[in-house]
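Exercise: predict the fold of this chain.
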Amino acid sequence: MSKCRRCVYSWTLCLIGLSVSSLTLSACSVFIDVECKDSGGGCMLSKAGEMAGEMAGEMAGEMAGEMAGEMAGEMAGDMAGEIAGDMAGEMAGEIAGDMAGESADREVIPYHTLDCPSDCELSWSSVSSGEFFMGSLNSADEQPIHSVSIRSFEVSIREVTVGQYSRCVAAGDCPEPTDFTEVEENSSSITQEQSSGCTYFIEDSWEMPMNCVHYCEAIAFSSWLSNESGVETRLLSESEWIFIAQSQGLYNYPWGDEQPSCQYAHLLGCEPLNESQPSCTKSLGRGVSPDTCDLIGNVSEWVADKYLPTYLGAPDNHDPVPFDSPICEQGSFINDAGQQTGVVKGGHRESPPAAVRPNNRVLRILNTRSTQLGFRVAGPIGH
């Protein structure tokens, strides 16, 4: 036997063709030093070669296993994601369909509903027919002073309250005052930041006077109430309003001849400051004849008339000054009718005493919504 020599053999692990999840591994080489015997010029692998082969096999197996595991995990994750996505889509579609169906079937519920916890029916007071002198020398638009005849009618004791107006909203005949940002140019409508003063959006405000309504919304309530009661209901004319605010021509104010103060009306400087009060809070300010609340102060009131700069050409009876063309349709203005001017009476919570004389006239653009402006209604006698 010849003397042993150290030689180097290159072992190639032929793993080509081993398919793991569609991945073909390339050949890897392991180089080892072995002892060999001379045998006809050839070499034979010693025990070291066998060990090297075993090590190479183990390494290749581990690598193949790891790669196969990673690929299998990725495929499983992809499949799970697809399945979860399909299931989520189906569930979302079913839920959306159910919700859409429920929404279609569900009636729109306004901020307030028909379930008024207090008496939401209007109370009425009778007004006898009579004559009085309308106007004063205090302002040009209150002239000329002229005689006016009034027929008998009934007037709501209170200004229309939130509870009463809410019934009209729930019936679908009155618009809900929700959007105060979309106002017509040149109107004095309130902004959304001021909407907290709108009594409709104050909790438990059923007995508060309804404010933040423009002329046609007040007309819409009157029309709804007419259909509801079967009796024609309307806004007062200016002459009717002055007649009852002067106790049917007997006094200067509803309560008598005493000058306005916080004792009789909710005016500028009266507590609570800058807030409307529930109707009929000022018991001393109730009308002597007829029985009314808050004709002076709290919130001003729309009347039916078109504003004229003087009383020249005004009716000499209870009728309002008419507009030249129709103004309202289902609570909205016809074309640009909202830019015409109407009359507001009675003063409000921020009015000084000098500004609440019954003859005092305030003009307002008809599309005005204000926290200081409401309305009351009238109807035929005996209804």
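Check your answer against the key: The mean pLDDT is 76.
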